[in-house]
Amino acid sequence: MMLFFPGLASSQSVAQGEPREIVDGLGRTVRVEHAAQRVIALYGGFNEILDAMGIAQRIIARTSNETFPPCILNKPGIGTHMRPNLELITGLAPDLVLQLAGRKTAADTVRQLEERGIHVAAFHPSSFEELFDAIQKIGVLTGEEAAASRLVAEMDGRLSAVKSQLGTVPHRPSVFFEIRSPNLLCAGQGGIVNDVINRAGGRNCVQSERKIVRMGEEALVGLNPEVYVVQRGPMNTRPQPLEERSLYRTLRAVQDGRVLFVDERLFSRPGPRLVEAVEQLARFLYPEKMRKNRIKE
Fold first, then answer.
1. Residue 1 is assigned to a structural domain of this protein
2. What is the pTM of this model?
C-alpha cells in the first residue's frame, strides 16, 4: 500500500531562498542555501519518503534497480546504490543528494560528492523513531516541514492502531527473519526489521546486536523459532521452500505451518511502507485479534 497524500506539499512552504540546516545520521551538519528542489536519492526508501510527502516531482534521477514509485521510471539512471556514477550526478546539478549510511562505500560516496560541492545528507534508521527523525529532517531540507510532520503522524497513527488491536499479549512468539539463503543471513537486533517484529507483537529470537547476522543451520535448529519469515527480493531472489531444506523440516515453525514469505522492499527498507510490514506481520501472528477490527488494506 502506497502512502500518498495529494496536496501534502504545502503551498505555504518556506521561501526557497532561506537556508536550511540539519544534523544528519552521521552527526554531520548539512546546510543548503535554499529548500532543495532538485533531489537525488541513492537509496530507494528516500524516494518513497519524497513521494509520500507529495514532492516526487523534485526527484531528478534514480539508481538503476529502483522502480518505485512508478513516477521515477522515466528519470535518468545514475548507477547503483553502492556504485553511483559521480560524473552523471554532478552533471545533473542536484540541490541535495540523500544517501543511506552504514557501509564504508556509502561514506566514501558522501565524501566524494561533497568534494564536488554537492550537498549530501546521510541517514541510517534502525528503528521507527530514527526513521521519523530522518523524515522530519528531509522535510527541513526540502522546506516541507508540515508535509513531513503529517506523514510521520499518519504512520505513527497506524502503528498505534496495531498496538491497540493487539492489546495485552501474554506470549510473544519467537520470530526468525531470513535475509538470505543459502549461506544463511538473518536479522539481528540492530536493524529496523527488529522493530517491525517487536511492533507486530513478536520477539526476534536472534540475540546478536548486529543488523545482519551470519548463522549456521545447526544454530538455527537450536533456536527453533515459532515463526519463520522469509524475505524475497534482491538479496534473496529464489528462496527454497523450507520443507525442501533437510534440517529446516525439524523446525517448530515449519511443522506448525507458521512460515511467511514477504517482500524484501516492504520489510527491510526504511520508508513509509514499513508500517504496512508491521500490519502484515501482526495479522499473521495474531489473526483473530487483528480480524476483530481489521486494518484497512
1. no
2. 0.90
Nearest-10 Cα torsion for 100, 39, 95, 113: 40
Q: Are residues 147 and 246 in the same domain?
A: no
Do 154 and 37 sit in the same domain of this protein? yes
Question: 105 lies in which domain range?
Answer: 20-158
Can you tell me the distance from the alpha carbon of 244 to that of 156, in angstroms, rounded to the nearest whole number? 39
Q: How many domains does the structure of the chain reveal?
A: 2
CA 254, 175, 278, 99 torsion: positive or negative? negative
Of 158, 191, 209, the position where a domain reaches its end is: 158
pLDDT at residue 293 in the model:
57
Q: What angle do CA 200, 202, 205 make, to 5 degrees?
A: 140
pLDDT digits (tens, 9 = 90+) for 120-145: 999 999 999 999 999 999 999 999 99
Whether 223 is in a domain gets the answer yes
Does position 232 have pLDDT exceeding 60, yes or no? yes
- Kindly tell me if the per-residue pLDDT of 11 is higher than 90: no
